[in-house]
C-alpha cells in the first residue's frame, strides 16, 4: 500500500471511504446484512412517516378552516335589502345517532344569487345538494330514519371545495318560503373573515408540551431502529479489524451502515407516507378527517426530517460505539464492568424543571408563554427521565437475588445487559411520563374548559323549540311529539310575561312584571314543587336562586290581584290591556330547576285556570322523555321535529359540555399517543425477536434438558416486564413531577391522581401484547433444529 | 433387537428432514453403566439418533423404549419431564446460559426439577468440586476458559444424577489434555452412578473411552460388538 | 503385506498369465516397488502347491510366463478370509490396508465393512491403552499417548479412505 497513513487518517476522504465501506456492508452483507438493513429501514421509515404526518398537521388545520370559512355565509353589517343577487339562508343542525349533519336552507331572492363553494347551482325548492359522504350514509340500509328526515330530491353533489373533509355529512336544501321572518338571514354571498382568536396561553402550553411528549418517543424509536442487530454488526466489524482496519475506520464503517439504513428508512417513510395519504380520506379520527391533498408536509419541516434523520443515525451509532471496543478478535463492551453514574444524569430533569418554572405562570390574563422555554424545559426533563432509566434499571436489578427459575433467568440477563433493556423501554417511559404530565394538567384545568351544564338527562333527554306563537299550533305540535314512537312523555309549557296593571308608581324605574307559565300538572311538577295539583290550580313560584329580584314577583303575583298580559313596551303605544285576576286560593310553592337546569318562577297556571287566548305572543318550550329501550327513539323524535319545521332545533341534554377548543387539543393528543404507543410496541417486539434469534442454540439446549415452555415464556415476560415496570414507576414519578410543575404554572393545586391508572394500564397491556407476540417466535426457536446448526 | 436388561433401546428408527432421510431403520440399545460411542461420518445421522433416543425429536417411525416407557408414545410434556429427571446432556458449545453464574448453571436442571434454590446450589457446588472447577462458581461462562466451561457443562449434566447421559461431541472444542480430562471425569462419574453414556463423537481417542462403539452410516446403525 | 493374497485377489476377476499378474500388481500396488518375475513364479508355485490356484492352460513356447493361472474355490475362500480379518494394529500398516481396500473394490466386496472391522480392531487396542492411562503413572500415560496418537492417525486415514471409497472405486476401475 502506498499510503499507510490514510488507513487511520481523518479528513473528508477518509470519512467518505469508510462510510462507503459501511454502505457496501449494508448492501452486500448477505442475507443477514439485508435483513438488518431492512429492519432499520422499516423502523426508521415508520418513524419518518409519523414525523411527516405530524408535519402536515398545520396544513390540514389550515385547509379545513379555510374551506369551512369559505362556505360560511358572509355576515352583513346591517340589514340587507332583497336584490337579484342576495339570498336568504338558515342553518339546519341535526344529528343522526352520533354523526352530526350540517345543513343549510337556501332561498335566492333573484336569479343572480351566488351558490356556496363546491355547489354548481342552487337547489330548487324541495331539492338538496349533498356531500358524497352523506349520499353514501343515506344509502346505508340501517339509516331509513334519516331518509325519512331528508326526503328531498337529490339534485347534485357538493364538491371538495365546499367540504371541510371528505367524511363531512353536509347538505344544502332549497326552500320557497324561507324569509327573514321565519328564521332566515339575508346574505349577499359566502365566505367569512377569519376571526383569529389567539390560543389561550394554557392551551398553548399544552400544545407545546404535547408536541414534545409525542415526538420524543418517535425520535427515540428512530434511534433504536438505527441500532437494530448491533451485536451481529459488531462481530462483522471485528472481522474488519482483523484484516487491518483501525478502530476509527470500524466506527465510521458502522456509521456508514447506519447511514444507509437511515437513508433507506427516509425513502421508505416517504413512500409509506405517499401511499398512506391516499387512504387518509377513509379514516376519521375523532371527527377530524382530511382530503389526501390536505396532507402536505410543511416544506421546512420535511426538509429538516430528511436531513436530520440520517445525520442522527450517524451520531447515534458513533455514540453507541463509544463504550464498545471493537478488537480484531471480538467485541469488548467496556460498559459491562463500569457502573453507571448518576451525577451527570440528574441535572437534566432538574434543569428542565428549572426552565419550565422560569417561564412563570400561565393562568393570568397577561401571562406570557415563551415556547422556547417551555419546549426546552419539557424536552430536557423528558430526556433526563430517559437518561435516568438505565441507571435505575442497573441499580434496582442489581438488588435482585434468587427467585424462581424464570425470574432468575430474566433478572440475570437484565443484570448483564440492563442498558439494552432500558433502551428498549425508554420510548415507553418518555411517552407515559409525558402523557401523565399532560393528563394531570388536563384534569386540573378541565374545570376551566368543562361547564357543568346543570342539565339532568335522567328527567328528559331532548329539548325542542316550537317555532310558533299560536297556542293551538303549540298544542298540535305537542300532540305530534306525544304520538312519536319511543316518546314516553312531553314536558310542555307556554311562557309569557305578566305585569302589574296601571301606571308607574313613584320611584319605580319600570312596571314590575314576572313570567307566566301555563302547562298541565305533569309538566308544571317538573318546573316547581307543586304538591297536589289538579286542572284549574294556580301557583305562585318564588325564586330563591337570586337570579331575579324576588320583590317583583311579590309585587306582581299576589293572590287576588289583577295582572296584565299585554307586553308593555312593544310598540311604544300603550297596548290594549289583557287583564286577568289571580285566584285568591293561588298557592305559593318552591321552584325546581327544569331538566335543562333552568329555574322557573312567577305565575304558574294550569290550562283550566287561565284562558290562553288572553296571552300575548306566547312562546313554547318542550322537553321530551324517551324510552331508552326503544331503538332510535331520539331519531324518531328528531324526525318529528323536522316534519314540523326543518328549522326546529333539537338539543340533546347532557350533564357536561366540553369547550370545543379544549376538546380538539385533547383529541390531537389522543390520536398521536395511540400512534406512538403502537410504534413503541413494534420496536420492543423487533428487539425481543432479534434477541431470541441470537439465542436460538441456547434455547434448543435448554429444551433438550427438559425446560418447560412455560418456564421460558415466563422468563421472556419477566425480562420485558421488569424494565417496563421500572420504566413505568419512573415515568409516573417523572410525569407527576413534570405535571406538578405545569400545574404550578397554571396556578392549580388540585391534583387528580386517577389519571395515572389508564396510562399505567396501557403500558402494561403493551408489555403483554409484546410478550404474547414474541411467543410464536420463541416456540419456533425452541425446536431442536437449533441443535443441528453448527 | 431388544437385548435383555437394556436401559434404553431403539428399534427401526426412521426420521427424515425434508426429502433426505437422517435415520433409515436404526436400531440401538444400551445397558446401565455402559458407555457407548456413536461413530460415523458427518451427516450420517449420529446427532439425529441422539435426539431421537433422548426424546428431543420424535422419530417418523420406530420405537424408543426407556425402562417401562415407550418414549415415542409419550407427549412432549412427558418427554420433557423425563429429560429433566432421568437424562443429562452435554453439547459441544454454547450450552451454558451466559448470564447465569456457573453455579447457577449447574443448579439449573435441579431447579427445573423443583429442588429448592439453596439445596440445588449446594449440590451444584459439590459437582463443580468433583469436576475440579469449584473456583468458578461465582463467575459467568464468558469469564472462564473453554475447558472450565465444558467441565461446568458436565457438572450440570451430572447434577440430577441422570440414568442416561447424552454427550454430543463433548470435547469437540477442547484441546487434547482438557478433552481427555473431561472425558475421564465424565465416564468415571457415570460409572460411579451406574449411568449409561451415549457418546457421539468422530474422534477415535474419544471413542476409546467407551465400552463399545456403534457406527452410523447412511441412517443405519452397525453394532460392532458382535464382531470382536 | 501378503503378496500371495494380493495375487489371488487379482485372479478373482478371471484367469491371467503370470506376466499379466505382475503388470496388474504393479499398476495397482507397485508404485514404489515393482514386483520381480521371480517373486511371481515362486508365489504362484506355492499357491499351486496349496491348491489355491490351478493352471488353466499353457500357450505354445517355453518358460513359465506362458502359464495361465485360475483361482480355485479354496483360493476365493482364502482371499475372503484374509480381507475380513482385521490386521493387528501396528505402525506403517497403510500399505496392507490400502491393498485390502483396493482388492475389496476390485472383487466387488464391501470395502466399508472392511474399514469398520479394522476400526473396531483399532478401538479395541485403544481402549486397552486408555484403560492403562487411566490407572497408570505419568510415564505410562505418555507411552500410551504415543501409541494412541499413531493409532488415531491410522484410523483417521481409514475414515478418510472410507469417505472417498466411491472415488477410489472409480479410479481402480473395477
UniProtKB/TrEMBL annotation, chain B:
**Known Gene3D superfamilies for this protein?**
P-loop containing nucleotide triphosphate hydrolases (3.40.50.300)
**Transmembrane intervals:** none
* Keywords tagged on the record: ATP-binding, Nucleotide-binding, Transport
Q: Which SMART domains match?
A: AAA
Does the entry feature the keyword Zinc, yes or no?
no
Where does the record place a coiled coil? none
Which Pfam families does the record cross-reference, listed alphabetically? ABC_tran
SUPFAM superfamilies with a match to the protein in the record = P-loop containing nucleoside triphosphate hydrolases
Record-level Gene Ontology MF annotations: ATP binding; ATP hydrolysis activity; transmembrane transporter activity
Which InterPro entries does this chain map to?
AAA+_ATPase, ABC_transporter-like_ATP-bd, ABC_transpr_LolD-like, MacB-like_ATP-bd, P-loop_NTPase
For this record, the Gene Ontology CC terms, alphabetical, are: plasma membrane
| Presence of the UniProt keyword Nucleotide-binding in the record | yes
Protein name according to UniProt:
ABC transporter ATP-binding protein
TrEMBL record, chain C:
Q: Which Pfam families is this protein grouped with? A: PadR
- According to UniProt, the name of this protein is PadR family transcriptional regulator
Amino acid at each position: 500500500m502506498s499510503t499507510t497513513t490514510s488507513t487511520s487518517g481523518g479528513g473528508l476522504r477518509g470519512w467518505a471511504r469508510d462510510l462507503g465501506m459501511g454502505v457496501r456492508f449494508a448492501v452486500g452483507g448477505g442475507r443477514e446484512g439485508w435483513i438488518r438493513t431492512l429492519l432499520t429501514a422499516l423502523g426508521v421509515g415508520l418513524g419518518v412517516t409519523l414525523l411527516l404526518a405530524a408535519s402536515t398537521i398545520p396544513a390540514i388545520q389550515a385547509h379545513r378552516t379555510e374551506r369551512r370559512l369559505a362556505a360560511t355565509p358572509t355576515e352583513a353589517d346591517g340589514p340587507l335589502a332583497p336584490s337579484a343577487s342576495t339570498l336568504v339562508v338558515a342553518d339546519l343542525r341535526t344529528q343522526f345517532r352520533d354523526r352530526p349533519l350540517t345543513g343549510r336552507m337556501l332561498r335566492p331572492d333573484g336569479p343572480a344569487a351566488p351558490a356556496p363553494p363546491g355547489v354548481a347551482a342552487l337547489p330548487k325548492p324541495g331539492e338538496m345538494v349533498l356531500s358524497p359522504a352523506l349520499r353514501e350514509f343515506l344509502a346505508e340500509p340501517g339509516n331509513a330514519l334519516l331518509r325519512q328526515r331528508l326526503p328531498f330530491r337529490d339534485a347534485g353533489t357538493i364538491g371538495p371545495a365546499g367540504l371541510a373533509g371528505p367524511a363531512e355529512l353536509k347538505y344544502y336544501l332549497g326552500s320557497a318560503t324561507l324569509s327573514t321572518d321565519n328564521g332566515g338571514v339575508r346574505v349577499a354571498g359566502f365566505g367569512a373573515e377569519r376571526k383569529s382568536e389567539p390560543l389561550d396561553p394554557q392551551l398553548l402550553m399544552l400544545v407545546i408540551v404535547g408536541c414534545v411528549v409525542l415526538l420524543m418517543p418517535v425520535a427515540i424509536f428512530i434511534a433504536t431502529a438505527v441500532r437494530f442487530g448491533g451485536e451481529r454488526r459488531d462481530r462483522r466489524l471485528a472481522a474488519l479489524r482483523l484484516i487491518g482496519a483501525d478502530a476509527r475506520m470500524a466506527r465510521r464503517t458502522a456509521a456508514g451502515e447506519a447511514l444507509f439504513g437511515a437513508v433507506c428508512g427516509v425513502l421508505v417513510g416517504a413512500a409509506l407516507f405517499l401511499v398512506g395519504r391516499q387512504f387518509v380520506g377513509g379514516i376519521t379520527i375523532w371527527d377530524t378527517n382530511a382530503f389526501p391533498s390536505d396532507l402536505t408536509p410543511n416544506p421546512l419541516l420535511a426538509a429538516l426530517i430528511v436531513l436530520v434523520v440520517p445525520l442522527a443515525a450517524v451520531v447515534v451509532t458513533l455514540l453507541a460505539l463509544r463504550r464498545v471496543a471493537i478488537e480484531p478478535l471480538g467485541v469488548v463492551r467496556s460498559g459491562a464492568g463500569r457502573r453507571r453514574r448518576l451525577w451527570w444524569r440528574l441535572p437534566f430533569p432538574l434543569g428542565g424543571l428549572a426552565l419550565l418554572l422560569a417561564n412563570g405562570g400561565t393562568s393570568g390574563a397577561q401571562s406570557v408563554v415563551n415556547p422556547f422555554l417551555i419546549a426546552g424545559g419539557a424536552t430536557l426533563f423528558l430526556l433526563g427521565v430517559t437518561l435516568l432509566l438505565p441507571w435505575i434499571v442497573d441499580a434496582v436489578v442489581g438488588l435482585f437475588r434468587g427467585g424462581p427459575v424464570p425470574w432468575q433467568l430474566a433478572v440475570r440477563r437484565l443484570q448483564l445487559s440492563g442498558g439494552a433493556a432500558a433502551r428498549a423501554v425508554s420510548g415507553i417511559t418518555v411517552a407515559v411520563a409525558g402523557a401523565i404530565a399532560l393528563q394531570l394538567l388536563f384534569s386540573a384545568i378541565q374545570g376551566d374548559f368543562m361547564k357543568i351544564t346543570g342539565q339532568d338527562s335522567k328527567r328528559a333527554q331532548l329539548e325542542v323549540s316550537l317555532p310558533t306563537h299560536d297556542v293551538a299550533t303549540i298544542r298540535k305540535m305537542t300532540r305530534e311529539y306525544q304520538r312519536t314512537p319511543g316518546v314516553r312523555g312531553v314536558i310542555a309549557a307556554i311562557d309569557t310575561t305578566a305585569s302589574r296593571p296601571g301606571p308607574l308608581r313613584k320611584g319605580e324605574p319600570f312596571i314590575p312584571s314576572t313570567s307566566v307559565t301555563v302547562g298541565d300538572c305533569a309538566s308544571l311538577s317538573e318546573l316547581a314543587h307543586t304538591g297536589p295539583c289538579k286542572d284549574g290550580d294556580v301557583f305562585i313560584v318564588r325564586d330563591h336562586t337570586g337570579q331575579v329580584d324576588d320583590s317583583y314577583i311579590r309585587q306582581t303575583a299576589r293572590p287576588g290581584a289583577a295582572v296584565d298580559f299585554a307586553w308593555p313596551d312593544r310598540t311604544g303605544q300603550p297596548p290594549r290591556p289583557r287583564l286577568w285576576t289571580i285566584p285568591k286560593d293561588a298557592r305559593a310553592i318552591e321552584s325546581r330547576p327544569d331538566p335543562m337546569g333552568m329555574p322557573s318562577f312567577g305565575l304558574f297556571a294550569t290550562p283550566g285556570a287561565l284562558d290562553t287566548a288572553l296571552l300575548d305572543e306566547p312562546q313554547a318550550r318542550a322537553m321530551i322523555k324517551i324510552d331508552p329501550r326503544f331503538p332510535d327513539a331520539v331519531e324518531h323524535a328528531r324526525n318529528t321535529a323536522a316534519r314540523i319545521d326543518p328549522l326546529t332545533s333539537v338539543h340533546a341534554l347532557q350533564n357536561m359540555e366540553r369547550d370545543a377548543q379544549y376538546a380538539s387539543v385533547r383529541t390531537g393528543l389522543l390520536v398521536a399517543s395511540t400512534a406512538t404507543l403502537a410504534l413503541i410496541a413494534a420496536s420492543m417486539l423487533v428487539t425481543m425477536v432479534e434477541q431470541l434469534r441470537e439465542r436460538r442454540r441456547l434455547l434448543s439446549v435448554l429444551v433438550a434438558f427438559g425446560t418447560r415452555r412455560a418456564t421460558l415464556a415466563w422468563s421472556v415476560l419477566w425480562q420485558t416486564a421488569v424494565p417496563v415496570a421500572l420504566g413505568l414507576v419512573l415515568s409516573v414519578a417523572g410525569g407527576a413531577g413534570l405535571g406538578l410543575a405545569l400545574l404550578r404554572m397554571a396556578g392549580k393545586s388540585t391534583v387528580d391522581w386517577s389519571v395515572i391508572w389508564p396510562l399505567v394500564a396501557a403500558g402494561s397491556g403493551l408489555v403483554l401484547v409484546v410478550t404474547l407476540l414474541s411467543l410464536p417466535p420463541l416456540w419456533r426457536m425452541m425446536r431442536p433444529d437449533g441443535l443441528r446448526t453448527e | 433387537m431388544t437385548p435383555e436388561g437394556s436401559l434404553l433401546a431403539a428399534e427401526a428408527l426412521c426420521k427424515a428432514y425434508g426429502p433426505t432421510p437422517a435415520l433409515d431403520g436404526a436400531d440401538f440399545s444400551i445397558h446401565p453403566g455402559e458407555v457407548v460411542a456413536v461413530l460415523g461420518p458427518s451427516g450420517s445421522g449420529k446427532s439425529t439418533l441422539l435426539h431421537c433416543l433422548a426424546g428431543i425429536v420424535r422419530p417418523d417411525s420406530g420405537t424408543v423404549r426407556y425402562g417401562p416407557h415407550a418414549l415415542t408414545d409419550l407427549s412432549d410434556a412427558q418427554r420433557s419431564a423425563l429429560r429433566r429427571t432421568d437424562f443429562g446432556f452435554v453439547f459441544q458449545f454454547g450450552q451454558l446460559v451466559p448470564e447465569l453464574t456457573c453455579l447457577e448453571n449447574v443448579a439449573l436442571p435441579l431447579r427445573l426439577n423443583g429442588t429448592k434454590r439453596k439445596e440445588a446450589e449446594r449440590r451444584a457446588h459439590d459437582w463443580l468440586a468433583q469436576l475440579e472447577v469449584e473456583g468458578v462458581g461465582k463467575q459467568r461462562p464468558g469469564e472462564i476458559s473453554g475447558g472450565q466451561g465444558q467441565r461446568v457443562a458436565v457438572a450440570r449434566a451430572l447434577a440430577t444424577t441422570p440414568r442416561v447421559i447424552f454427550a454430543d461431541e463433548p470435547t469437540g472444542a477442547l484441546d487434547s489434555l482438557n478433552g481427555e480430562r473431561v472425558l475421564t471425569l465424565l465416564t468415571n462419574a457415570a460409572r460411579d452412578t451406574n449411568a449409561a453414556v451415549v457418546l457421539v463423537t468422530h474422534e477415535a481417542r474419544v471413542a476409546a473411552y467407551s465400552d463399545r462403539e456403534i457406527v452410523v452410516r447412511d441412517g443405519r446403525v452397525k453394532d460392532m460388538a458382535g464382531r470382536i | 503385506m501378503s503378496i500371495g493374497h494380493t495375487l489371488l485377489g487379482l485372479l478373482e476377476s478371471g484367469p491371467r498369465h503370470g506376466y499379466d499378474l505382475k503388470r496388474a500388481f504393479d499398476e495397482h500396488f507397485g508404485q514404489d516397488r515393482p514386483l520381480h518375475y521371480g517373486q511371481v513364479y515362486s508365489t504362484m508355485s506355492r499357491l499351486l502347491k496349496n491348491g489355491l490356484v490351478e493352471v488353466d492352460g499353457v500357450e505354445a513356447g517355453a518358460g513359465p510366463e506362458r502359464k495361465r493361472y485360475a483361482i480355485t474355490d479354496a483360493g476365493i475362500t482364502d482371499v475372503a478370509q484374509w480381507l475380513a480379518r482385521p490386521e493387528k494394529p501396528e505402525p506403517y500398516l497403510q500399505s496392507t490396508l490400502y491393498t485390502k481396500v483396493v482388492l475389496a473394490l476390485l472383487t466387488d466386496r464391501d470395502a466399508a465393512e472392511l474399514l469398520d472391522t479394522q476400526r473396531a480392531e483399532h478401538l479395541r487396542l485403544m481402549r486397552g491403552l486408555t484403560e492403562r492411562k487411566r490407572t497408570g503413572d505419568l510415564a505410562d500415560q505418555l507411552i500410551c499417548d504415543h501409541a494412541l496418537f499413531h493409532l488415531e492417525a491410522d484410523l483417521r486415514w481409514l475414515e478418510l479412505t472410507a469417505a472417498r471409497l466411491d472415488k477410489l472405486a472409480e479410479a481402480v476401475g473395477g
